Amino acid sequence: MNARIRRKTIVTAVLTGIVICLAAFPMQALSREMDVRPDIEEAKIKYRVTGDVYFGDRYQFSKPCVLCRKKIFEKIPEYQTIVHEQLNKNSARYHLLIEQANRVFRSKIKEALEGLGYDLVVEKKGIKARGVKIPDISKEVIAKITG
Asked: Could you report the per-residue pLDDT of 97-114, keeping only the tens digit for each?
């Protein structure tokens, strides 16, 4: 009887070892296929968008930039007319000119972005990221308006 118990114990131990090996093998193969390397994970920059967004999606972007809307509007001829004529916000002329100024503003932003690769444009001081300087494209947009 002693030999019989020993043989059952050995068979049970061998079968348990085989089951453990078979259970572990697919996990190793799966991790190799997925190329999971937690020690090499790329560090992602965490941005906090709090300002007005003029172009792009505040939740999905990879390369943000900022601009100063006030500086740009001061260079738009339609806006200069509003300021020079001191138009009232309730007048029809004001609304026509401000609508044209907004169109110029949006179109010149898109023109300035061509080739720069930015996918989010936010008002200056409207985006924050620790240790990252966000580029300002105000000069490029102004150059498109005046050029």
From this structure: 999 999 999 999 999 998
Q: Do 72 and 105 touch, CB atoms closer than 8 A?
A: yes
CA separation for the pair 55, 113 (Å, rounded): 10
> Is residue 135's pLDDT more than 70?
yes
Tell how far CA 12 is from the center of its chain: 56
Kindly state whether residues 97 and 120 are assigned to the same domain.
Answer: yes
CB 131 within 8 A of CB 44: no
pTM value is 0.67
Q: Taking CA 43 as the corner, what is the angle to CA 40 and CA 45, rounded to the nearest 5 degrees?
A: 170
In terms of domains, do 87 and 136 share one?
A: yes
Host domain of residue 126 = 47-146
Cα(137)–Cα(93) distance, integer angstroms: 30
Q: Say if residue 27 is in the same domain as residue 76.
A: no
Separation CA 55–CA 58 (nearest Å): 9
